[in-house]
Specification:
Length: 348
């Protein structure tokens, strides 16, 4: 595979001097949830046509491209979606990616619904870390936020199974929507305090065009911190590394930490080193991009690794994305009028 046969030649940095370091791979555009902020049920109903099988990248194609990205400097890869655990045999893909020595961090973001069944297998396949999304512990709130009336129990069982399989710490992602689950965030933090797991509160973002995003539903990071601090004092901590997306806060009593992802109120585009590979093989350089560069076509058309590498490096060196930093000046802040790729096609 690419990283084993050619010398490592990293991609040039982009137009804002950001290197290519992370790759998010969307392994499916399908999901067993219908979170209204991502795949609203009224749009993604019974008749919605997801990608036909032959348009999805195969595991061999994903592994080949990952090898090329690793050659270009990627050291972290995250499997996401859609819901990655509904792609058949996804552990086989993990086993195909673990041989890339330069991939120091191989992770997955899942909604956790099927995790109890797969946790042990994922660990044995070589997955390094796992992030589980859980927006609330309140069943009524959770049922409305997953759009499928599922209770929290299967997700909590999934987290317990991941813990038992040896994943530690587990990150718990919670999207905060004002008026929807903001009254339950302190409970969520309290539940995981002292467990070693890290809850990360994410500001509701205007990804895609279908989630009826409105600034008034964004709970600013400062407000989230204030609410938690009132009950359980926290203090800021230095980032683990430059460009870390979540701002770290630790409990003053030493009982662990939380993270805050303030993508709207405190954008972090300046340090964004993430590329995204969509389910159908497009290279997308920003969560808010209108589209991407087709890699599947050239790959299936016979392009060799060097040609694909040049294509990817060229796209990266031209990159000028910094949507979140420009959001306030673009004039389409309240209501997504600009065309944009949807979140489930490229992962979070
Ligand atoms: N299905 C998996 C899951 O939910 O964990 C992986 C894919 S999901 C698109 C990845 C992450 O994006 C999840 O943590 C989800 O909560 C987050 N997300 C989705 N839509 C979002 C939005 N509009 N604003 C902020 N985060 C969002
Ligand atoms: Fe599915 Fe994840 Fe999107 Fe929810 S956030 S609809 S679980 S892909
Ligand atoms: Fe990166 Fe785009 Fe998000 Fe900015 S808006 S942090 S460039 S993905």
């Amino acid at each position: 595979m690419a990283s084993q046969i050619s010398t490592r030649q990293t991609a040039a940095s982009d137009q804002f001097d950001r290197p290519l370091r992370d790759l998010r791979i969307s392994v499916t555009d399908r999901c067993n949830f219908r979170c209204p902020y991502c795949m609203p049920a009224e749009i993604y109903g019974e008749r919605y046509e997801f990608l036909p099988r032959d348009e999805l990248l195969t595991f061999e194609e994903i592994a080949r491209l990952t090898g090329i990205f690793v050659d270009l400097g990627v050291t972290k890869a995250r499997l996401t979606g859609g819901e990655p655990l509904i792609r058949a045999d996804v552990t086989r893909l993990i086993r195909m990616l673990t041989p890339f020595n330069a991939l120091a961090d191989l992770t997955m973001t899942t909604n956790g619904y099927l995790l109890a069944r797969f946790a042990q297998e994922l660990k044995e396949a070589g997955l390094g870390r796992i992030t589980v999304s859980l927006d609330s512990l309140d069943d009524e709130v959770f049922r409305s936020m997953n759009g499928r009336n599922f209770d929290t129990a299967p997700v909590l069982e999934g987290i317990a199974a991941a813990e038992k399989a040896g994943f530690s710490p587990i990150k718990i992602n919670a999207v905060v929507q004002k008026g929807v689950n903001d009254h339950t965030i302190v409970d969520l933090a309290r539940h995981f305090k002292g467990t070693g797991h890290i809850v990360r509160f994410i500001e509701f973002m205007d990804v895609g065009t279908l989630n009826h995003w409105n600034m008034s539903q964004v709970m600013p990071a400062a407000e989230i911190v204030r609410m938690i601090c009132e009950e359980m004092p926290i203090e800021p901590v230095e980032p683990n590394y430059k460009g870390e997306v979540a701002r770290r806060w630790r409990y003053v009593d030493g009982d662990g930490e939380i993270g805050i992802i303030a993508s709207v109120s405190e954008p972090f585009c300046g340090a964004c080193t993430r590329a995204r590979l969509s389910t159908d093989g497009r290279l997308v350089t920003c969560l808010f991009a209108a589209g991407g560069t087709d890699l599947r076509g050239p790959m299936r058309g016979g392009a060799d690794d060097d040609e694909l590498k040049k294509l990817i490096a060229g796209v990266w060196s031209d990159r000028r994305d910094r949507y979140s930093m420009d959001r306030s000046t673009l004039g389409d802040g309240d209501g997504a009028t600009r065309s944009r790729i949807e979140m489930y096609q490229i992962g979070g």
